Protein: DUF6311 domain-containing protein
Amino acid sequence: MTAPAPDTRDREPAPTGGDGSAADDSSDPGSSTPSPTTTTAPEQPEQPEKPDTAAEKRRGGRWRRADALVALIYLAGAFWVTARGWRDYDGRLLGSRPNDQGFNEWMLAYAAHAVTNLENPFFTTLQNAPAGVNLMTNVGMQLPGLVLTPVTLLFGASFSYLLFITLNLAGTGYAWYHVLSRHVVDSRAAAFVGGLFCAFAPALISHSNGHPHITAQWLVPFIVWRVVALSRGERVIRDGLILGGLVVAQFFISLEILFLTALGCLMLVLAYLAFRPRDAVRRLRPLLSGLAITGVLVSAAAAYPLWMQFAGPQHRVGHPGTPDIYALKLGSFVEFATKSIAGGPTSAIGWAPNTTEQASFYGWSLVVLAAGVLWWLRRETTVRVLGAVGLVSALFSIGTTWTVGTRRTDVPAPFALVQNLPVFDSVVVSRFALITTVALGVLLAVAGDRLAARRTEPAGRLAARVGAVAVAAALLPILPMPLDAKGRTPVPDFVTASTWRDHVAPGRTLVPVPVNGMTSLYWSSAAVAGFAVPEGYFLAPVSATDNTGRWGVDPQPTAKLLTAVSLGERDTTVGQADVDQARADVRYWKADAVVLPDRGVRRHDDLKTVLDALYGPGERVEDVWVWDVRPFTR
Structure:
């Protein structure tokens, strides 16, 4: 994140007209502004183009071609990372967290359902029927779901998910490149390296294993830059409204990333206040005025979803487990991620909570390079601010206690100071290092720009070459490898061919057997959330009287019985008490049908025997067995 330092470039130099006058500031960088010409009679030949205007056009053309090339490179890199999923998007799960992918596919499917049926995008009973799921206290993604609705309806939720996770990487990279090249550095190559790191560092690659709400950071650079622009006090009302629009959009993409962005901006302001107190105080007045305008706009747009988040049905407080379960280790910053060139299946074991939370893992070479850049450019306020922001956020990601190697000590660490504050108690601690990643990316761009500026000097050319080699050597080990992919259990034709509509009324519940949360989500996603399902995969309160966060809910007794049969933990004998409970449970679920697929189910025959005993003889429909339970539930 950049500081509002005077030694950082504000914008591209404005093009000049043929008479040497400045063109309109609102013109795009590299675009040309026709010079004023004297009115001539129609029969006179057109005046030749003035030399500086022609040069401006040629430069603008080069810039546009460079921008297009950068976008293509980022897009190619994104497809490289997700390539194995594209081979069969319906038949494969991308990455190491299939449950996370299943939940996010369902979120996209539900968004399409909510749009086409005008239903509440923030709460639904179509998952975890009948209690429902608070979508704001989970991963909302309302805006991506809305934008991708046509894609989801045409190609399915699995295609939309894969497209989303791929474009997030390319879009985040290009967004950082755009902001860096227009507002921070003169060198397009330096901006490219900064954008490359911000999008393809281990943090975003590891979160591409199932967290599209985390990798959707393409608005973050614009939000950060608008905060910097506000501090200048040039157009406070306009900049405040623009920032408000960006914040509202990010709110409906990922509330967690918005929180981390706000925290990073606060760190930026405090660091600038420490290094340049007089200038910082001067800038605070327009900044606070603009933020007040932003706050009014955001409050109006987000009032209801914020109520849902903190007080609505099924809201929860905190995150399951202690913060340190999801914390990084100090040594993780010099280790290599699982999906990096220098990493491997075991390289991150013990250093990160799981394969999605490898938000550091820069390797020794990059840490040494960053330290060298901080020393070299230590007189620049921008560099000092970036160093401070990166360091503080890295320390927060360590958790509540310091670590030695992979062992956690009892010595309190910085996050212990804020762990019980609202919102902080719900953040996955390792994700504070996402702020560090941005700070490093911008630092690389600034360093590259300073080297590029010295190329006109004899000694500077050598320094630029040495610097380029050092950056390449530092980045090469952490460049990403393609994510893994594995097959998924096919959803029955009964669901994909919409045959379920003959057996389940809209909004009523279809119960897959065994009653498994992920099976419920995959089937519901394939039907674009056309029916409700029991259980699921989500965060919820412990109970109606305890809103502490937990994963999922306790299964109903019949769900436990069927799971035990499928695992061979009990035989097929059922008593009258089991029958009464089974019929009470389908009434609780508001179910119309219980469905057992022919494929992909262990102990299929035993399950069918038990279901026949509980609900009467089932009916074979296409590739499933269906038990019509409407006589017990209507």
